[in-house]
Amino acid sequence: MITSLSNEKIKLTRALARRRTRHQEQRFILEGVRLLDELVRTNIRPDFVLHTRAVVEKPEAAALLQAFNTRRVPCYPVADQVMEACADTVTPSGLLAVAPFPHLPPPAHPTWTLVVDNMRTPGNLGTLLRTAAAAGTAQVLLSPGTVDLYHPQVVRGGAGAHFRIPILQCSWQAIGEQLKDTDVWLATAHSDQPYTHVDWTQPLGLVIGSEAHGATPEALALSTGRVSIPMAHAVESLNAAMAAGILLFEIARQRRAF
Questions:
Q1: Does 122 have pLDDT greater than 70?
Q2: If we measure between CA atoms, which residue out of 134, 167, 136 comes closest to residue 151?
Q3: Which residues span the domain enclosing 60?
Q4: What would the pLDDT profile of 62-92 be if each residue is shown by its tens digit?
Q5: How far apart are CA 20 and CA 77, in angstroms?
Q6: For position 234, what pLDDT does the model report?
Q7: Do residues 178 and 157 both lie within one domain?
Q8: What is the pTM of this model?
Q9: How many CB atoms are located within 10 Å of the residue 12 CB?
Q10: Is the dihedral of CA 27, 178, 106, 131 positive or negative?
Q11: 3-state secondary structure the chain
């Protein structure tokens, strides 16, 4: 059992709380049964798994550890205080993995791209990615200024989206090149075009930004049209992730995605 915070694997795990280290190492942390279940279903082999003694008594966790052992992934029991030092959550689940960044290849000819514009709240981005995956979005492009894709709260909120759809952190130039022959709709709080009046069956890009900061100049320049969700007049705007969910599932409905 690992009991010391000076252990090299523990030092690496704790260092991955920093964005700079995550991107230098190309590694990130996944916590809890749900995310590790998502991980074990992929072909991504984690570097190692940490777990407490108590979590082994839970059937779901024990089954996951057995699956990782079968794949010859090192699984190390750790003291409770070590897990608390490594985990990002207030009440650690007792199970976490250190794994390489997933690199899903982007589609050669994406017909439906979500662009995230300068979204800085990790919880919002995580929820947005989870929704995009559920709606069947072809790919997600994250603009400069958007919170780190591998921030622990984004990973938890994404609930496995990192393993389901290509998600790329891009420059605005790269985003523009990918969408140069595509209609790009910018979601805004107010426009003359309700989202139900748009033909979403054509190749498209949908830009969702932060409700706190509004669209960036780059997003405004990229967009070829603006779309809004009609609301009662007393409501100024929707949460960005909530608005994205409404729009993405309207796109899915029109495309008969499922």
A1: yes
A2: 167
A3: 8-100
A4: 999 999 999 999 999 999 999 999 999 888 9
A5: 27
A6: 62
A7: yes
A8: 0.93
A9: 16
A10: positive
A11: CECCCCCHHHHHHHHCCCHHHHHHHCEEEEEHHHHHHHHHCCCCCCCEEEECCHHHHCHHHHHHHHHHHHCCCCEEEECHHHHHHHCCCCCCCCEEEEEECCCCCCCCCCCEEEEEECCCCHHHHHHHHHHHHHHCCCEEEECCCCCCCCCHHHHHHHCCHHHCCCEEECCHHHHHHHCCCCEEEEECCCCCCEHHHCCCCCCEEEEEECCCCCCCHHHHHHCCEEEECCCCCCCCCCCHHHHHHHHHHHHHHHHCCC
Amino acid at 41: R
Pairing of strands 139-142, 167-169: parallel
In a domain, 34, yes or no: yes
Q: Which of 149, 150, 129 is nearest to 16 (CA)?
A: 150
Q: Are strands 183-187 and 204-209 parallel, antiparallel or unpaired?
A: parallel
**Of 75, 100, 125, the domain-final residue:** 100
Cβ neighbourhood burial of 85 (10 Å; 0-12, 13-18, 19+): middle
CB 73 within 8 A of CB 121: no
Residue 126: inside a domain: yes
pLDDT band at 11 (very low <50, low <70, confident <90, very high): very high
pLDDT digits (tens, 9 = 90+) for 180-238: 889 999 998 877 899 999 999 999 999 998 776 778 999 999 999 999 998 887 677 78
Distance, CA of 55 to CA of 38 (rounded, Å): 18
